[in-house]
Design goal:
heterodimer; A: Rna Polymerase Sigma Factor, Chain: A; Arc Repressor Mutant, subunit A; 2 domains; 77% helix; extended; B: mainly alpha; 10 helices; 75% helix; elongated
């Protein structure tokens, strides 16, 4: 999170100075962030993508309003939130979350991260212990497979295969859960 | 259009942006509006003929600095409100300072004087026209500040509109003070403030309609 802030802010500062390559990288990264932001809040994927584009345009046309003395992400999410509320006010779609949930940015993002962590923990509980530990160490804590193998006393290949199978099983469970929700 | 194409197009349009673009554009809108208001005041009401001798009185400078400090704090508040996610509470709170100071001065002036004298200090000779004239002279400034604010990204449209209105009202009153020959603090704190607040209310009402982006 902090790394992302520093990185995005650096790109934004270069973009404001006229560096088109930095700007392109920034917009691509913001596209990803915004897609996630709106996908969580809107049921309809097409309007979520419309809002991503609308917000990118707003970031472009309003970029002078970013105060370089302040962090970048609160500015970005304030723009995104304004566009979301504006969109909901126009009443084109039904929201999947209450307006109140679109509250203050940082608090909200932290609670989202906490929720995501809890869901992840719950999913991981369903896997065998060795696989779970391997995934946790490599995918969440950021260890290399070599380090994870050393820690668990298994071969690196076994760790790799375990992670692969575990992720696949998680993917299947997620899909299962989602199709149940849709019904 | 695909989002990737959009990104390409936006990146192709990139031009460097000045870090002082917001205050500069706001000052431009404010200055242009104030210039129109000043000419309007001159042609319609005229500058007070005794301006040179009035400039030696504290009453003239009281009006001058009351409206000017209100205008500067409102400018600062609008400059913050123009930016998504930037705080503006401090700036909006500062607006109370000139009002409180002048209110205290007004209370000191009406303390212990007779009822008729007190009435005169509050009503002067132009109470029935003063707020209206301030409101009308504020309109060009209002157009200028809203023009500027519309280029930025206010996210609280009603508050931003009200602050832009107060900014316009304060400078409208500052210009009116070149015509007005009232000199009592009670008069100024009531009728000037009323005219300024009316334009602030107008800005709040129009914020949502005029400032959407």
């Amino acid at each position: 999170m902090l790394a992302a802030e520093a990185q995005l802010k650096a790109l934004m500062l270069s973009a404001l100075a006229g560096d088109a390559a930095a700007y392109r990288a920034l917009l691509a990264a913001l596209g990803e962030l915004l897609r996630r932001y709106y996908a969580r809040r809107l049921r309809d994927a097409a309007s979520a993508e419309d809002l991503v584009q609308e917000t990118l345009i707003a970031v472009h046309t309003r970029r002078a309003t970013y105060d370089t003395a302040l962090p970048f992400t609160p500015w970005l999410y304030a723009v995104a939130r304004y566009k979301l509320l504006d969109h909901l006010r126009r009443g084109r779609v039904r929201a999947t979350v209450a307006l109140d949930d679109a509250g203050d940015l940082f608090a909200e993002d932290e609670s989202e991260a906490a929720l995501a962590r809890r869901d992840l923990d719950r999913l991981l509980e369903t896997l065998p212990e060795a696989t779970r530990e391997a995934i946790r160490q490599v995918k969440i804590e950021g260890l290399t497979t070599g380090e994870a193998a050393e820690r668990s006393g298994r071969s690196e290949i076994a760790v790799r295969v375990g992670i692969h199978r575990g992720l696949k099983a998680l993917g299947d469970k997620l899909r299962e859960g989602r199709s149940r929700e849709d019904r | 259009m695909k989002t990737d194409e959009l990104i390409d197009r936006l990146a192709g349009e990139l031009a460097p942006v000045s870090r002082v673009a917001v205050p500069r554009t706001l000052a431009l809108g404010l200055g242009a509006g104030a210039a129109v208001s000043f000419v309007a005041m001159w042609l319609w009401l005229g500058i007070r003929p005794d301006l040179a001798s009035a400039a030696d009185t504290s009453a003239f400078w009281m009006k001058f600095f009351y409206t000017l400090t209100l205008g500067c704090f409102a400018f600062w508040a609008v400059e913050r409100l123009a930016r998504p996610g930037a705080g503006s509470r401090v700036q909006m709170t500062l607006l109370a300072i000139p009002v409180v100071v002048l209110l205290v001065l007004a209370l000191v002036q009406i303390d212990g004087v007779s009822r008729t004298a007190r009435m005169h200090l509050m009503m002067g000779a132009s109470a029935n026209v003063c707020p209206w004239r301030i409101a009308i002279l504020s309109l060009p400034v209002f157009a200028g500040t809203f023009w500027a604010l519309g280029k930025f990204g206010p996210t609280r449209l009603v508050v931003a509109g009200a602050m832009a209105g107060l900014l316009a009202g304060a400078f409208g009153a500052w210009i009116y003070a070149f015509h007005c020959d009232e000199s009592a603090a009670p008069f100024v704190v009531i009728w000037y403030t009323l005219g300024i607040a009316a334009i602030g209310a107008l800005g709040g009402l129009l914020g949502r309609a005029l400032l959407r982006w």
